[in-house]
Amino acid sequence: xxxxxxxxxxxxxxxxxxxxxxxxxxxxxxxxxxxxxxxxxxxxxxxxxxxxxxxxxxxxxxxxxxxxxxxxxxxxxxxxxxxxxxxxxxxxxxxxxxxxxxxxxxxxxxxxxxxxxxxxxxxxxxxxxxxxxxxxxxxxxxxxxxxxxxxxx
Length: 153
Ligand SMILES: [Fe+2]
Fold this sequence. Notes:
Blueprint: H1 3-29, H2 35-62, H3 71-77, H4 89-116, H5 120-145
Bound molecules: fe (ii) ion (FE2).
């Protein structure tokens, strides 16, 4: 078993576990003029994060490793952070742009490790995820850019 690869995959699984719960919170707490749009988008994104977490965990198992599953382990190993404070829609979207960019770079780095280890299946999985997350980061940043300027009081 490639322990280094399993460790790297578990850290990404931890990131997705934190991201999933963060997106759930944003889905519940978002408000304002973009409520319907963002409530739905955050729901779509947490379902996608859950599906990716499942694929990562099953890849870890296929490699003979053990996927983390407790919230304690996820919080200890994740590089993404929880957010119990942001209340404004644009702040949530900006935090997610940062998170998806961070994830994208961790996914590319882990894909390089997989390539170096000759593990093409893991490399392909991670590259596919990275493509998707970079696109999500771009879409969310485009949403931020198209917002009208705040009306002066
Ligand atoms: Fe819901």
